[in-house]
User: Fold these one by one.
Assistant:
Number 1:
Amino acid sequence: MNRISWNQYFMAQSHLLALRSTCTRLTVGATIVRDKRIIAGGYNGSIAGDVHCVDEGCYVIDNHCVRTIHAEMNALLQCAKFGVPTEGAEIYVTHFPCLQCTKALIQAGIKTVYYAKDYKNNPYAVDLFEKAGVKVEKVPLELPLNELLLSES
Ligand SMILES: [Zn+2]
Ligand SMILES: [Zn+2]
């Protein structure tokens, strides 16, 4: 029996969430996990009620789309909204977090960051993670998911 590892399971979840992204520039997903349980998830998307980049085009200032909230932030904010502690939690993200998300993750008490793909890895972000004692590990998505799901029948 092919049993999927926890790392691959949570990373797959983040990749599924990324498929919900509404910004065409980068599709990112993030899953916050505590004690092997998913406590929140997020993707790169607009503020609730605003238009979507996929419909209206990106709102670009200084070469960044300013319309969206990043996946990591959305996941953290979901915890804030529903009063779920993030202290000591782990996060699985499809891409290496940007500097702003890095700061938020550290400040929210996230202790481990698993990411699948390098993405403009900010040296200051790397430095901040190190100083904060946050473990950062690259976990590329392996996923013979279709095989795993379809081979049993
Ligand atoms: Zn956009
Ligand atoms: Zn970010």
Number 2:
Amino acid sequence: MTGLADIAAAGRRLLARSGATPPPVWDLRTDADTVTDDPLALHHAKHLTLMRAYQGRYILLPSAAPSGSMVERLRRHYDPVEMAHLESLRHGLETELSVPRATAARAATKGRDWEVYANALKADVRAQAENPFVAYLRESPQRDAHYRQFLLQSSADLLAEASASALGVVGEFGPAQSALFRILIDEFGYGTHVKKHSVLYRAVMRDFGLPEDYNACWPLFDTAALELHNAIHYLFQNPANFFLQVGFLLFAETAYQRSTQDHFRYLREFHPEADARYFGEHAHIDLHHTAMIIDEVAAPLVATYGADVGAEIVAGAEYTRAAFDRAGAHMLATAHAFDLAVAVGDATAAAPDLTNLGAAVTTAGAAALAPDERLQVGGLGTVAARAFPRFPTLAQARRATG
Ligand SMILES: [Fe+2]
Ligand SMILES: [Fe+2]
């Protein structure tokens, strides 16, 4: 198991590689250089470290030129020696954090027929009641804060949407590859930048007063958001998981056509001024993506390679369902906890100020602070230290710097 000393040492190297005042996309810090033996803090730092390893696989450029030579700065960000060091921790972290969940999904889906599964999944998703988080927001006076929190926590992956799944498209593997490529180009707006899904996501972030640069909000990500990000990236950054990746796409495209419709309706009703194209676009296009995954990817792969490929696809879908369910349940529990704190005067809704974020605080760590100290909790607002231990254990807060 990767220990505190390894995580702390990796954190110091990432801090040095980031340099002073890095542009948000190249900010690799993890808090791990100051992490203590609080198990929640260590768990969070492990996930942040793993996220940094995954982010190193993408071309990320700052929106404006950094001071000095851009070529030199790029070389430092993607320094192969530093990347290799981080990569040396990746397998151990994945074995601890993600592999047990994949093993559990395989055990739970043993013997399932992929086609029966896919048909039932489509029917289930269509028959579902409204997304529980969206339904909760309809009744909550803090709905602006909750939606801001939802956007911020989901931005870990969605501000670079489909970069993870792109890793499952490159290579050489027959007709299924071409179908996956067609889905991928939809995700990238068919080559039209303003229609790229990550750019549409940026627009709704902006309308809720959030920074729109990829990785800008990392200091406010809670552990549940990192778990979901890393659950997805574990699949796509390991080619051995190819059939689990197909299962991810089967579940995600099917579930998304429904959840994005709920979000689209909610935004139209409660935030009519917000840009909802991201959700409207998915409610439509993911109907096609689901059909493409079933007919042009899963079916031919199983026909060619046999039933154990079908079983792996079902395991990937259920691994994904479990990851989404955990993140969704956490989001809802956090909303409840925040509303309870607001009701007794222990919390105030406010957009985060990224220039005033100090040390990270877990729900356990908050007990050691002065009870009245106000902590920033993600995109929600400020919460008194005395109330934060009643938040879900995967929640995360920051002290103010001044
Ligand atoms: Fe998309
Ligand atoms: Fe899609």
